[in-house]
Write a structure and sequence with these properties.
CATH architecture of the largest domain: Alpha-Beta Barrel
InterPro entries: Glyco_hydro/deAcase_b/a-brl (IPR011330), Glyco_hydro_38_N (IPR000602), Glyco_hydro_38_N_sf (IPR027291)
Shape: elongated
CATH class of the largest domain: Alpha Beta
Structural class: alpha+beta
Largest sheet: 9 strands, antiparallel
Protein name: Glycoside hydrolase family 38 N-terminal domain-containing protein
GO molecular function, one term: alpha-mannosidase activity
Number of strands: 40
Radius of gyration: 30 Å
CATH topology of the largest domain: 7-stranded beta/alpha barrel
Pfam family, one: Glyco_hydro_38N
Strand order of the largest sheet: 27-28-29-30-39-36-35-32-33
Length: 824
């Protein structure tokens, strides 16, 4: 064996809520940095020569941010002194995040780290992350745009896997914009601890009452010799081509580990004995990449997304994720309505951003969530995790309210004239449905809203034109919906007014399609078309067929006769599929044995059975039907289907009551869409700042089992596009759903791009820290948009669809006297 170098990078893995209360974790990491300062001062003063060479890398900027917020001025001076000298390093990532994170907030956090390190006269261009096994393609570009050129991935193959089919290897990761990051595809974030360089760090041993003795040190060193030499021998056997290898190390084997300078004692011992064969060096993150870039190495380049195996945690907390996603949409509206940040308090917005960032952090519960779901600490940390989504939603909603008030939103008041301001916040023209609400105590032209139909009409105040509208019942009162064509950033005032009704209510009909009980159940005949019924809905754009006992069996684009349902679909659109795996031998072990598969051969699978269909509405703008299902694992599973008559759009709201189950379970919502032939249709995912083709635009060896999306996915067949929005449930998986060997992305994975998709709405899979109890009432919103646009890339279609998902903004408004004078 030729001479080798083992580079160790000392850090503390940040898991916010896995080992203790979230706010306690913050205190710990502040203390760890203070400890590092004390150790360095002792070394500098000559009090601890045995620790010479000690260095500490802050795993993320969040740790530094917590320290700067709580440290005394003299502590900050000392900290920055050692940062400048290179004894303390800073990784420019913010936290170890799921792909739930909002891309705009992520960029802000990267920029905050970049702005802070710019004060130092040394290079900071490296970042690391630990535990999570994947990062969106957009994440790579965000790093590059914020000055990060090197990225160290500390993977964790517990229910995950590294890319490229091998670890401990570098590669260039090319972004969608053609920029390149140097990535070290590393090993577990505490593999360095396996070498036992730190005294008394073998947690499998007990020592005498005298404690860890010199003999114990000698015995431990023998284990170190065995493991280090075997490590490099294995690398050589596997064809490892470099004379060096990096490994991450913590003060002790635990997440949120205290820092320890005592690893230097073991490193010095090793180098005195074996330094001629294998030298061990403690380096910082930036130092490692400096050494790596000095070497003339042949490093391959790869392009594509790197889907995260940690992403499925969001499926265990559907209520919190629903709040997060709504806050995310409000955040985007805020940035569009107030791009310069002058209409509301920016400190409030930053507080909201911080709360959402903390919710997107990868820790999804205490470490015994599954084995001890009754434990007070388990439930405490679950509620604290939820509080990030709740507080982020509250602050974001309040900030949006402040902006709308600046736009003139009126508060509740008696006898208010029913004026509303509608705003297009987008930078493109939008034709979309918007809605305003009239509460039970509010009046329109002094009259209470006792009737549903033929009571009010919507008037465009600028032109005096009556806008077609439709009134529905809702939990917020009467919902008045209407379409508007609006230019970019346009504002328009509309008014509700009493409608003059001249229609005579009669019970006499001379047509065959209406019976005495006023039930319309006659099939179409010459001179009569029956476009809305429990058997289907037909508009100028779409034809939806519903079959008893089956559900939706066909959706046709009437402008092209293209079928929108995948020919291989097994389950009807928006119907549910439930899976449960028996607890054999225990809730913990059954999950642990699944490995990277989120199900097992023993998994039981049930599909929803349609039991009834009822027509709810049939108005000028849209029709609604209710599809009622029975589904194992639930006590209620209803789908409210809304088909729009003026636009090619379908909304589906899944309302369900989930039952409690301790065993591992999954709940899917079927989304089996295509546009015409699947062979001619490409699937694109929108995900954390990027749009890519799953199974195609991915790094080799990455996860193809599931993905965490942003607004939804696009199916593109030439100039025809179908976009499916998933407002509340970001996880998707390709069918079939049966358990099988886990396929990593390879040359054959392109076929997955053509397969049937499912929304993975819920799961309680992970055996340590996912929330096990999914029971409760839920409302999950989906939408399907047909978008015909020539010569446009999928990213452009996604951008347009986002505008439709975010919609127009409508607010109660009291016009000024001058404005009233201008009304027609």
């Amino acid at each position: 064996m030729s001479k080798k170098i083992l580079y160790l990078v000392h850090h503390s893995h940040t898991d916010i809520g896995y080992t203790d209360r979230q706010e306690k974790i913050s205190r710990y990491h502040v203390h760890y940095i203070r400890s590092a300062l004390r150790f360095l001062e002792k070394i500098e003063n000559g009090e601890a020569p045995q620790w010479e060479g000690y260095k500490y890398t802050c795993e993320n900027y969040w740790q530094v941010e917590q320290f700067l917020a709580q440290a005394a001025p003299e502590e900050i001076v000392t900290f920055e002194k050692y940062v400048q000298r290179g004894f303390i390093d800073i990784s420019l990532t913010y936290l170890n995040l799921t792909e739930l994170v909002d891309f705009a907030i992520l960029n802000k956090k990267f920029k905050a780290a970049r702005d802070y390190v710019s004060r130092f006269d040394r290079t900071f261009d490296s970042a690391m992350t630990a535990d999570i096994n994947g990062f969106s393609w957009g994440y790579a570009e965000a790093m590059y745009q914020n000055g990060i050129r090197n990225f160290f991935s500390c993977l964790h193959t517990h229910h995950g896997m590294f890319p490229l089919f091998k670890k401990q290897t570098p590669f260039w990761w090319e972004t969608q914009d053609g920029n390149k990051l140097l990535v070290w595809n590393g090993d577990h974030y505490q593999i360095g601890n396996d070498f036992l360089f730190i005294p008394n760090s073998d947690q499998s041993k007990q020592y005498g009452v005298a404690g860890f003795s010199e003999q114990d040190w000698e015995d431990q060193l023998k284990i170190t010799e065995s493991r280090v030499f075997e490590f490099f021998e294995l690398l050589e056997e596997e064809g490892y081509e470099f004379d060096f290898c990096p490994a991450m190390i913590s003060g002790i084997v635990t997440d949120n580990s205290p820092t320890s300078p005592r690893m230097m004692e073991g490193i010095h011992r090793w180098n005195r004995l074996h330094g001629e064969r294998i030298t061990v060096e403690l380096v910082t993150l930036n130092e490692f990449f400096e050494q790596l870039r000095k070497r003339e190495l042949s490093i391959p380049t790869y392009k594509g997304d790197w889907p995260d195996w940690w992403a499925d945690g969001v499926g265990s907390t559907p209520s919190g994720v629903k709040l997060y996603r709504e806050a995310q949409r409000n955040y985007r509206l805020i940035n569009k309505l107030d791009p310069t940040g002058v209409l509301a308090d920016q400190e409030q917005l930053q507080a909201a951003e911080d709360q959402l960032m903390m919710y997107a952090e990868h820790t999804w519960g205490f470490h015994s969530s599954v084995s001890e779901p009754w434990d007070a600490f388990v439930n405490l940390l679950d509620m604290r995790k939820s509080a990030y989504a709740i507080n982020g939603h509250r602050l974001m909603a309040n900030h949006l309210d402040d902006i709308l008030e600046a736009y003139g939103e009126a508060p509740n008041q008696l006898d208010r004239e029913s004026f509303f301001k509608v705003i297009n916040p987008h930078d493109e023209p939008v034709h979309a449905l918007t809605s305003v609400y009239v509460q039970h105590w509010q009046t329109v032209d002094d009259s209470y809203f006792t009737l549903l139909n033929d009571f009010v009409e919507v008037v465009d105040c600028a032109t005096g034109a009556v806008i077609d509208s439709q009134v529905s019942h809702s939990s917020r009162g009467k919902k008045v919906s209407f379409y508007l064509d609006m230019a970019p950033k346009e504002e328009r005032i509309v008014r509700l007014r009493r409608k003059v009704v001249q229609k005579i209510d009669t019970k006499y009909y001379n047509h065959a399609h209406i019976g005495a009980e006023r039930i319309e159940d006659i099939a179409p005949y010459d001179g009569f078309s029956h476009d809305v019924s429990v058997y289907g809905i037909k508009t100028d754009h779409l034809k939806v067929t519903i079959e008893p006992g089956k559900g939706i069996t066909s959706i046709v684009d009437r402008t092209t006769d293209a079928q929108l349902l995948h020919p291989n679909a097994i389950h009807a659109p928006f119907s549910g599929v439930y899976e449960v795996t028996p607890n054999d031998p225990s809730p913990y072990m059954v999950r642990s044995r699944m490995g990277r598969n989120r199900k097992a051969p023993a998994t039981l699978r049930e599909q929803a059975e349609l039991t009834n269909v009822r027509q709810l509405e049939d108005g000028p703008l849209f029709a609604k039907v209710l599809l009622s299902y029975t589904l194992a694992g639930t006590k209620m599973y209803d789908v409210i289907l809304t088909v729009y008559k003026r636009t090619p759009q379908i909304d589906a709201t899944v309302r369900l009551q989930k039952s409690m189950e301790w065993a591992p379970e999954n709940l899917y919502v079927s989304l089996p869409f295509t546009y015409g032939s699947p062979a001619e249709t490409d699937c694109y995912f929108e995900k954390s700042g990027s749009v890519f083709k799953p199974g195609v635009d991915q790094l080799p060896g990455t996860n193809t089992s599931f993905y965490l999306l942003d607004s939804g996915f696009c199916l593109k067949n030439k100039n025809h596009h179908l976009f499916v929005s998933m407002k509340d449930t970001p996880l998707v998986t390709f069918g079939p759903l049966e358990s099988s060997l886990v396929e990593l992305c390879n040359k054959k994975s392109a076929r997955k791009n053509k397969e049937v998709l499912y929304s993975w709405a819920m799961n309680n899979f992970w055996e340590t820290n996912f929330k096990v109890d999914l029971s409760g009432f839920y409302e999950l919103d989906y939408a399907v948009y047909l978008i015909q646009q020539e010569n446009v890339e999928a990213a452009g279609v996604v951008s347009r669809a986002r505008h439709l998902v975010e919609g127009l903004v409508a607010a109660a408004y009291n016009p000024t006297a001058a404005e009233k004078e201008s009304f027609r």
